[in-house]
Write the structure tokens for this entry.
Amino acid sequence: MSTVKVSPKFQVVIPKEVRESLGIRAGQTVQVVAYDDRVEFILLRPMKQLRGFLKGIDTTVARNEDRV
């Protein structure tokens, strides 16, 4: 786990290993969410890039009859 320090301008640097593992590049947009007692950064991707990201998902879940 990496730690970062908040600068006087309230900026943080995303550690290199995290940037590389998530494929984050300079100029990309992230959404910032306050959740309970933490801050989460969510990488926003264009819709075209999301095509097929659910391929192979297991859809064999129990469903109610009115939801089939």
